Amino acid sequence: MKIVIDARLYGTKHTGNGRYTQNLVENLTKIDSTNTYYILLRKDDYESLNFPKNFVKILADFKHYTFKEQFLLPIIIYKIKPDIVHFPHFNVPIFYFGKFIVTIHDMIMHKSKGGEATTRPFPIYQIWRLGYYLAFAKAVYFSNLIICPTNVVKDDLSSFYKINKDKIKVTYEGIDTSTNQTDFKADNLGKYISYVGNAYPHKNLRRLIKALSIYNKKNKLKINLAISAARNVFIERIEKLAKKYKVQKNLKILGYVPDNQLMSFYNKSIAFIYPTLIEGFGLPGLEAMRAKTLVYSSNIDVLKEVYKDNVKYFNPKSVKEIVNSINDAVHLNEADRQKIISKAYEFTKNYSWQKMAKETLNIYQMVV
């Protein structure tokens, strides 16, 4: 089989999609020495990455959501004459009509709308959303099969686009089990709650900041919120909100914590709190469990599907419940804490990137 994987979003620099693509490719190299893979890469990754002989690097240095991507990417793919193409993101070129599967990680952009969800001028944003819907529909209706990370996303997708659920396969994501971990220096963070992810409005950090303010006003021991996220306009909005609620000294914006320090960052926190309103899978919560950290999670359906009964849930729209979660994290007795943490750690062993890669390979074979 000749398989093309569009890996232009490769690596954790591209957040969740990049982590998924990287782990898919890396684990396929470990389990499949028979089929030939053509890995489409941006220039930096093309020059730095090395793969086994049956994995051929192809330079495709086109940004996503551009005209070059729409017109030039199909030409590259047609020249390869693949049996199947895997697009790990919904942006399938309009002018590609070969056999392909697509991974649709979530429907967040369908649900998170309005001026707060963008940095673009609103008229430009409206045009962009139209393009988004067209690209998404192309991926859904013209694909031979769709991969989703959870059954909740599968059901949402099937319901919204009125497609047969048999066209959609669920492959759960995994957790990086690398032992190459180093210590995270947390000396200047005090007693802190951890958060990993972006600061988009649907992540609900506004309510978390407000809850932190309420908790700290009522208690002598002040708790800090340490956020691992890239600095951008959304982080700036959160910093302004922290000033409004007078907890700017308790908000620690760290930028991205390196992967090899992430487990230590989670582990040294009182708890990982995840107040998100919409999600596709919820990898940070699993990572925190693997790091032997207590997890408090919003009670949305997708996270209940992934985390089961291994975290403490709260209503993400209730600031009062988030305050109660912070209070519980601070005062939970050590025996109960360790009982929850140990059970959750064992539970995370159910999630494996290699398992995900094997299931994806089976999908390639089935479709071809």
Structure notes:
The chain has 368 residues and is an alpha/beta fold. The chain has 2 domains: 189 residues, Rossmann fold; 164 residues, Rossmann fold. α1 crosses α14. The model has no long low-confidence stretch (mean pLDDT 94).
Short characterization:
The protein is α/β, with parallel strands linked by helices and 368 residues long.
Key features?
368 residues; alpha/beta; Rossmann fold; 2 domains; seven-stranded parallel sheet; six-stranded parallel sheet; 14 helices; 15% strand
The CATH class of the largest domain, by name, is Alpha Beta
Helix tally equals: 14
How much β-strand is present in the residues? 5-15%
User: Do you know the CATH topology of the largest domain?
Assistant: Rossmann fold
The count of DSSP E runs of length 2 or more, i.e. the number of strands, is 13
Furnish the topology, listing elements before pairings.
Blueprint: E1 2-6, H1 15-31, E2 36-41, H2 43-48, E3 55-59, H3 67-80, E4 84-87, E5 100-103, H4 108-111, H5 122-142, E6 145-148, H6 151-161, E7 168-170, E8 192-196, H7 205-218, E9 224-228, H8 233-244, E10 251-253, H9 259-267, E11 271-274, H10 283-290, E12 295-298, H11 301-307, E13 312-314, H12 319-331, H13 334-347, H14 353-367
